[in-house]
Design a protein that fits this description.
This protein is 66% helix and 8% strand. It has helices at residues 11-20, 23-27, 45-54, 58-62, 65-75, 81-102, 107-135, 137-150, 157-160, 163-170, 172-181, and strands spanning 6-9, 33-36, 39-42, 189-192. The strands form two sheets. The protein has a two-stranded parallel sheet with strand order 1-2. Strands 3-4 form a two-stranded parallel sheet.
């Protein structure tokens, strides 16, 4: 029986291969070589233009939602909590010397108070950023459409959409786009624009 000598796998499959590695010595079979396959994301030209028009990077779009809300808030000039937080933090720092001069045993309560105040401001800042990011419904709707196109159901395209979908949608241009645009470097997510 002929075995496989090389497996090209994605990150998810790579985890399975690590788990299976213990079986090969038991079966007295040589383990196959393993290599990461290139990872791609299909992004249409008009989608890339929308993303650029929003001033959002693809990394921001694909990343953590809270960070995306923060990026939108900064781009929209609505990051109004951070400057106030900095001033309050400076004011709290000014309390340190006179407090310790009055009673050194107040150092711990002062630090706990400082932490609680700053943490409360951070939590409020996250809520304010989310509210500001949601304020512009058109921007939010466009962003959600782009995010859903790139991460359907919150997952990578390759986990949700069959390659046949793209071939049916774009025809022979789809395969040509891959040949022209894809490199074999598996370390980076490659954007293919049909």
């Amino acid at each position: 029986m002929l075995g496989s000598c090389l497996f090209l796998v994605g990150p998810g499959e790579l985890a399975y291969m690590a788990q299976a590695s213990a079986v090969y010595p038991v079966l007295e079979v040589d383990a196959p070589w393993i290599a990461l396959r290139p990872q791609t994301l299909v992004l249409e030209g008009h989608q890339a233009e929308k993303l650029e028009g929003l001033g959002i990077t693809l990394a921001d779009l694909l990343g953590d939602r809270k960070k995306l809300d923060h990026t939108l808030a900064v781009h929209g000039g609505t990051d109004f909590v951070a400057p106030v937080r900095r001033r309050i933090e400076e004011a709290l720092d000014e309390l340190r010397a006179p407090t310790l001069a009055a009673d050194p045993s107040l150092e711990r309560p002062l630090e706990k108070t400082r932490e609680q105040i700053l943490r409360a401001l951070d939590l409020f800042g996250e809520k304010a950023e989310s509210a500001a990011a949601r304020r512009d419904d058109v921007l939010t709707r466009r962003l959600e459409q782009l995010r859903e196109a790139c991460l359907p159901l919150g997952r990578l395209q390759e986990r949700v959409i069959a390659a046949a979908h793209f071939q049916g949608k774009y025809g022979s241009r789809f395969a040509e786009s891959y040949w022209e645009q894809m490199s074999l470097d598996p370390r980076f997510l490659q954007v293919i624009s049909p």
